[in-house]
Amino acid sequence: MSHTADQARRLLALHTQPEILVLPNVWDVVSAQVVAATPGVHALATASHSIASTFGYPDGEQIPLELHLDMVRRIVQAVSIPVSMDMEAGYGNPGDTARRAIDIGVVGGNLEDAMRPLGEAVAAVRAVMEAGRAAGVDFVLNARTDAVVRATPEQTRSQVIAEVITRGRAFLEAGAPVVFVPGLVARDEIQEVSDAFGPQKLTLISVPGVSLPARDLQALGVARLSTGPFTQRVALTALQDAAAEIVAGGTLPATTRPLN
Questions:
Q1: Which segments of 174-229 does DSSP mark as H helices, in order?
Q2: How many alpha carbons lie under 13 Å from residue 66 in its C-beta half-sphere?
Q3: Where are the domains positioned within the chain?
């Protein structure tokens, strides 16, 4: 467990430095190896949506946990840098899911609140952090609130941001090192939430054509930027475009590199 504990400390340190931690999400061994070999990449995060898609399952804990964990285990074993797992909402038992993830070498993870009652969501955060302590690992929980992506039309924007801040602060108080707020893309809202959480406490996802550049997010005090399912979509877009070109009588891209 000492190696896992060391990797957890490495991952935590990457979240607390002034430079933003950028994690292009991966979904299988070869994607993990390619991203891990990219200069400037110091840790990996898995994408649950992408792993589920790889096996033909829809997102939302539809892939069996055993199959999900097996792919993550393969990723951990294939690289030498810290790996964080998207645990979705915890598969009904966040503490046990975190324990099983730690057992295969995972040192951090996302946990969705799915807008459950705040007390339940905080209890889930505490359960994950306790699983880390029991294993002797400073587990880097990226506690996710869905307050933005599940906002209702009846809510004003100020109400949505207030809910983000309330939930995020509660997760930080429960021990989570950072809070993930998918859907937060406006500069002024990012600044407001970052100021409310404190430096290097907010994490975001980069949405193609919408999100601010990583360098701008760093200036706003954001700790971490991930890509979720979008990196797999980048790969699949390139695949479909290449297939369409050659089927239409053309050739494969001359820029293709032997990465596997």
A1: 187-197, 214-219
A2: 0
A3: 2-241
> Number of H helices and number of E strands within the chain?
10, 8
Summarised one tens digit per residue, pLDDT across range 15-41 is 999 999 999 999 999 999 999 999 999
Beta-strand relationship, 140-144 and 108-112? parallel
CB-CB contact of 242 with 253 (8 Å): yes
Give domain 2-241's CATH superfamily: Phosphoenolpyruvate-binding domains (3.20.20.60)
Give the Cα separation of 109 and 147 in Å (integer): 19
Q: Length of the chain in residues, anyone?
A: 260
Residue type present at position 26: V
Q: pLDDT digit string (tens) for 220-250?
A: 999 999 999 999 999 999 999 999 999 999 9
Mean pLDDT of the 117-145 span: 98
Model confidence pLDDT, tens digit, residues 50-100: 999 999 999 999 999 999 999 999 999 999 999 999 999 999 999 999 999
Residue labelled with tokens 């309330």: 166
User: Of 108, 193, 117, which Cα lies nearest the Cα of 148?
Assistant: 193
- Tokens 């993550």 sit on residue: 72
How far is 144 from 213, CA to CA, in rounded Å? 21
Distances from the Cα of 2 to the Cα of 74, 202, 230, angstroms? 19, 28, 33
Q: Alpha helices, DSSP H only, in 17-107?
A: 29-36, 48-54, 65-78, 94-103
